[in-house]
Design a protein that fits this description.
18% helix; Dihydrodipicolinate Reductase, domain 2; globular; 4-stranded antiparallel sheet; alpha+beta; 33% strand; 2 helices
Length: 196
């Protein structure tokens, strides 16, 4: 995505640690990936932000707001994105990953409203034909299998279903994150190009 969207500057950024002390982890996870870790009785200073917000301005003039928090009560893994424009909007919520919400503002006002698109129809949506019959939803693990299939396709000389990120994308992502940190620390707008 970094190649298609040229990031211009981070307009402002703020991070906040609400929980000043946390239990020091004394034991690793038990019971597999979802086992969690056990905190001990000893407490230690927390130097991790519990909430981070930043604003960005893109080269073409669009603006964006980004938010991340570990204290979003009621959300378990809500990695979401919402894109709003003059002629419509899209939104996606990872906790409901088989759906995409679409709003078409070009329709007559009496027909406007959010459309919930189930993206599991084989042949019309990427990857769906490789799984279950229509309307049989996929889960978290299927995304990793799809990603692995794309990597194998690339290694086999075939195009992936979706564009694959590369090291340049990762570098540009880190530039944006570094610009957000500098913006928060120095209380100023920061051009992404300043980050080397």
């Amino acid at each position: 995505m970094a190649k298609k969207l040229t990031r211009q500057q981070i307009a402002g950024s703020q991070g906040e640690a609400f929980v000043k002390e946390r239990a020091i982890v004394e034991e690793g996870p038990k019971g597999g990936i979802a086992g969690g870790t056990a905190g001990g009785k000893r407490m230690g200073k927390s130097d991790v932000d519990d909430a981070v917000l930043f604003l960005a301005r893109f080269k073409g003039g669009a603006v964006a707001s980004f938010e991340a928090t570990r204290l979003a009560t009621g959300n378990q893994n809500k990695n979401g994105i919402e894109i709003n424009g003059e002629r419509g909007s899209l939104r996606f919520n990872f906790e409901d990953m088989n759906y995409l919400d679409f709003y078409d503002a070009t329709l007559e006002r009496r027909q406007q409203g959010w459309t919930r698109i189930m993206v599991t129809h084989g042949g019309d949506h990427p990857y769906a034909a490789n799984w279950w019959p229509d309307a049989h939803v996929i889960g978290y693990e299927h995304g990793f299998i799809n990603m692995t299939a794309d990597m194998m396709n690339l290694l086999g000389g075939r195009e992936p279903v979706v564009p694959m990120p590369d090291f340049e994308d990762a570098y540009k992502t880190q530039q944006v994150l570094e610009a957000a940190l500098v913006s928060a620390h120095e209380r100023r707008a920061v051009k992404v190009a300043e980050m080397k």
